[in-house]
């Protein structure tokens, strides 16, 4: 246990480096959307049932067809105590990472041994994708914590029962399903444990029915309410829509999700190889079927997400938790199997060298990917968004609406601390003069962009010659419409 605590503390400290930086390093549109909801709770009232975004024009900005906003609401509570600071959002993600890592270790230790659990924890803690999204301003880290904790307490309850275990697993399940609805797929490993203990008689267990009702009814109610929210201002994230069949017959979907995201990014190549070995080594071990079904449940959730899974890279990080356990098993047992099968001579030397080089390369690959993401040169390309936002916040009247011209994300609006419209200037129809004039008629007072190179030359000429230029540099443009 002491080694596990040291690993988690090391992960916590590493994630605190540059914790006060702007939220622009990964999935910056998603971070800014989530951060704007947290800040709007703080500004406009702590009503968790009515989340508001900035990309809403002159409307109230109620957003529908989304997950339940437990994470930004928690951050907003901290804002009430400490003031509006983005690092508080990062801190919530980091602390929930620590909780998730701890219960992943506990779950690994429960079904395997100390060595496997420690290796699994190391891979999970310093996995680049987990590192990025466990310190970002979005709910993924919270979702992972709730999911892993639910799986642990359910496995404990099904064996030992006890109302406190029931309460913990139900609370975590309800919150996990609300925070990210696809986590409902985790019902598959839970079903396996029920069948393993009760066989078909599990349907007669009233406590299981109580668990299902308490954890699923709030999700159904939230989905109904969130669908209603989308009708108020016509704003929706579209989370409740499934992809068409064309997504699943497109080879690019499988390449993007299973190779580019899972094998290359989530499992960093070597981890993918060890995962396959882990599955092969444990395929007949009944005590680890729980983990196999956990893995399958995550793959099912990727298909539920469809095009969203392929488009939004962070959707696939859920596979890293069960994969870590199987990777730990593969690494821990590889040398042991060589000895058991009495492999000797050159064959053993070659296999050992291959194993050691693969295992030793994991920390180096992780270090390279993590540090590469936070290099100053890489971050500098998006820093003008933060800079122009602060200028707008200082010089433009608080209630004036702006058009943030970037690629369609809310980043400029968020750092400007203004409501308005986010427009993709790379799209000639959306970034046209007619489109800008239409928004001006709806109340837009300023146009702000950090992507002048992407704007059509005629539109740029119109903005600079027909409108009042407030600030103009090579990195950003602010004009009064």
Account of the 3D structure:
With 481 residues, the protein is mainly alpha-helical. It folds into two domains: 2-333 and 360-373, no CATH class; 383-480. It has helices at 2-15, 28-44, 70-82, 86-111, 114-125, 128-133, 140-160, 163-179, 187-198, 206-233, 245-248, 251-266, 270-282, 289-305, 307-311, 320-340, 345-373, 376-380, 383-395, 411-416, 433-441, 457-466, and strands at 401-406, 420-424, 444-449, 468-472, 477-480. The protein has a five-stranded mixed beta sheet with strand order 2-1-3-5-4, sandwiched between helices. Strand 4 and strand 5 form a beta hairpin. Helix 13 (270-282) packs across helix 16 (320-340). It is globular. The relative contact order is 0.11.
Features:
481 residues, mainly alpha, 5% strand, 5-stranded mixed β-sheet, 2 domains, 5 strands
Strand content: 5-15%
Number of domains: 2
Shape: globular
Share of residues in helices = 55-70%
How many H/I helical runs?
Answer: 22
Stretches where pLDDT is under 50 for at least 5 consecutive residues are none
Distance between the termini: 62 Å
Total beta strands: 5
- Radius of gyration (CA) equals 24 Å
Characterize the largest beta sheet: strand count, sense, and whether it forms a barrel. 5 strands, mixed
Order of helices and strands: HHHHHHHHHHHHHHHHHHHEHEHEHEE
Strand arrangement, major sheet: 2-1-3-5-4
**Helix/sheet category:** mainly alpha
Chain-averaged pLDDT: 91
